[in-house]
């Protein structure tokens, strides 16, 4: 990863690894990071409008699902991203 993170989630989809949420050594991580193992390169895939925390992330076929809770029981509404019509970030009620 470009910078150390704590309390983040990661999963693989279509041969790339996506990292969401957590904290850097100085602040909240607002970036969705993408890692390509073929080119050994990290990129800032997307910027979140809200800090994602207390999250779980999983990939089913070509969709990434992101379950997020804020203030323990209140679900956070997150935007949906359609990069290259491959990966979709969504919220799920936990």
Overview of this protein structure:
With 94 residues, the chain is mainly β. It has one domain. It is 0% helix and 46% strand. It has strands spanning 9-13, 16-20, 31-36, 41-47, 55-60, 63-70, 74-75, 89-92. Strands 1-2-3-4 form a four-stranded antiparallel β-sheet, with no helix packed on it. Strands 5, 6, 7 and 8 form a four-stranded mixed β-sheet that branches. Strand 5 and strand 6 (63-70) form a beta hairpin. Mean pLDDT is 74; it is low at 71-79 and 81-94.
Whole-number total of structural domains: 1
Question: What is the number of helices?
Answer: 0
Query: What is the beta-strand fraction?
Result: over 45%
Query: What Rg, in angstroms, do the CA atoms define?
Result: 13 Å
Average residue pLDDT: 74
Strand order of the largest sheet: 1-2-3-4
Which structural class matches the secondary elements?
A: mainly beta
Helix percent reads: under 10%
Global morphology: globular
Number of strands: 8
How far from one another are the termini? 28 Å
- Biggest pleated-sheet summary: 4 strands, antiparallel
Order of helices and strands: EEEEEEEE
Runs with pLDDT <50, length 5+? 71-79, 81-94
InterPro entries: Kelch-BTB_domain-containing, Kelch-typ_b-propeller, Kelch_1
Pfam family, one: Kelch_1
Keywords: Kelch repeat
Protein name: Kelch domain-containing protein 5
Summarize the structure.
The chain is an all-beta fold.
Protein traits:
four-stranded mixed beta sheet; Kelch domain-containing protein 5; disordered C terminus; four-stranded antiparallel beta sheet; mainly beta; 46% strand; 94 residues
């Amino acid at each position: 990863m470009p910078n150390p993170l704590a309390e983040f989630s990661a999963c693989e989809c279509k041969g790339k690894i996506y990292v969401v949420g957590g904290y850097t050594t100085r602040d909240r991580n607002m970036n969705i990071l993408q890692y390509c193992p073929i080119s050994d390169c990290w990129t800032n895939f997307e910027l979140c409008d809200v800090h994602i925390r207390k999250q779980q992330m999983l990939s089913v076929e070509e969709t990434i699902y992101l379950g997020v809770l804020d203030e323990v029981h209140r679900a956070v509404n997150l935007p949906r991203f359609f990069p290259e019509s491959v990966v979709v970030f969504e919220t799920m009620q936990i």
